[in-house]
Amino acid sequence: MTTAQFYCQYCMASLLGKKYVLKDDNPYCVSCYDCLFSNHCEECKEPIESGSKDLCYKGHHWHEGCFNCTKCNHSLVEKPFVAKDERLLCSECYSNECSSKCFHCKKTIMPGSRKMEFKGNYWHETCFVCEHCRQPIGTKPLISKESGNYCVTCFEKEFAHYCSFCKKVITSGGITFRGQPWHKECFLCSGCRKELCEEEFMSRDDYPFCLDCYNHLHAKKCAACTKPITGLKGAKFICFQDRQWHSECFNCGKCSVSLVGEGFLTHNKEIFCRKCGSGVDTDIK
């Protein structure tokens, strides 16, 4: 290109003795270049002129003076920053706004530091300790109570109950029978050995029995229907001398009228209402 041909590619003004910018090997005066090719600042929306420093991040551009934390407005030039939801945040503001807070000390868990998570909460590693011995729990087994988290050793010393059957620690759940703790899986029928934790049961001489075993081994039999009398759920029964009846079975042996709360007569092993028994050699009760 000769001196006589040295013109701005857009406005054709002479560039002799003037500043210019080359774009694709074509010269442009500064004014035309800024108008045609300069990027616009994400913050102030003004062109970033050719004489200004253009800071670029993920396809977006800023003036050097506009490249600031969107929360505290401190410059991010040559400083670490984090992009979140199309905002730029310095490390401190990001930590305060977005980082987890320690469940124990309530302070921010800084990015890059180790944190422990348990039941949806977070701790500094040095804050996640046994409530009793104050030693870090880390990834070791733990047992949680309302009062805090405990290593297994301290929990067993402070709180644990021991199963009356297997003598091992009950760490959670369990049931109580006759004032004694049991694992659910250890609370078995003394007859057939099936688990009773979800079953109705009876006891005899401080031993638990499922209903089938209790009825078979220990329950009294109704003098009328010969079925077991359990007394479960408030069921009523009648006792007379050495015999028992379900209340619904305590009826006259002749007319079947209920004798519950009524006077009755007996003859051998039969019971009768007064009317039916009047013709029989009976004892009046």
TrEMBL record:
The keyword Glycoprotein does not apply. CDD domains: LIM4_FHL. InterPro entries: LIM_FHL1/2/3/5_N, Znf_LIM. It is found in: Nucleus. GO terms for cellular component: nucleus; Z disc. The keyword Nucleus applies. Residues 39-100, 161-220, 221-283 form the LIM zinc-binding domain. Keywords: LIM domain, Metal-binding, Nucleus, Repeat, Zinc, Zinc-finger. SUPFAM superfamilies: Glucocorticoid receptor-like (DNA-binding domain) (SSF57716). GO terms for biological process: positive regulation of transcription by RNA polymerase II. Its main location: nucleus. GO terms for molecular function: transcription coactivator activity; zinc ion binding. It comes from the Eukaryota. PANTHER family: FOUR AND A HALF LIM DOMAINS PROTEIN (PTHR24205), FOUR AND A HALF LIM DOMAINS PROTEIN 5 (PTHR24205:SF7). This is Four and a half LIM domains 5.
